[in-house]
Amino acid sequence: MAWRPRHGDEAEERLQNLHARFRRVTRNQDRRARHGRFQRRAGAALLAGIGLAVLCTGVVWSYPWPALLTLKHLAAAGGCGTARLLELAPVRDGEPGYWSHLDRDEDGVACEHWNGR
Fold first, then answer.
1. Do 113 and 90 contact (CB within 8 A), yes or no?
2. In angstroms, rounded to a whole number, what is the distance separating the alpha carbons of residues 89 and 60?
3. Distance in angstroms (rounded) separating the CA atoms of residues 108 and 100
4. Which uninterrupted H or E stretch holds 92?
5. Which pLDDT tens digit goes with each residue over 53-99?
6. Sign of the alpha-carbon dihedral angle for 47, 50, 53, 55
């Protein structure tokens, strides 16, 4: 006598097929979602990089000094320690590395050695 699937076996087989199809669809959707997220992030990073390059180029060209000296000048805005590290301090008004907020006694010389007077 040939084997015949019972009602419960058919339902079980259909359920397994349905689960397999759902897994395939879900896997494909996840793959597409990850790919889309990567593209959005990569596009945003590229746009930010281009914007930063344009901004830096504009900033560097707006100062009267060579590019490396201008970058040192901008870095010196962080404090006198940085200005000394970059060998820009003490610095007079109008020279690269001078920032008014670093001139404690407002005499036109920033990051001078302070003796507490």
1. yes
2. 20
3. 8
4. strand 91-92
5. 777 677 667 778 787 888 888 888 888 888 898 888 899 999 988 99
6. negative
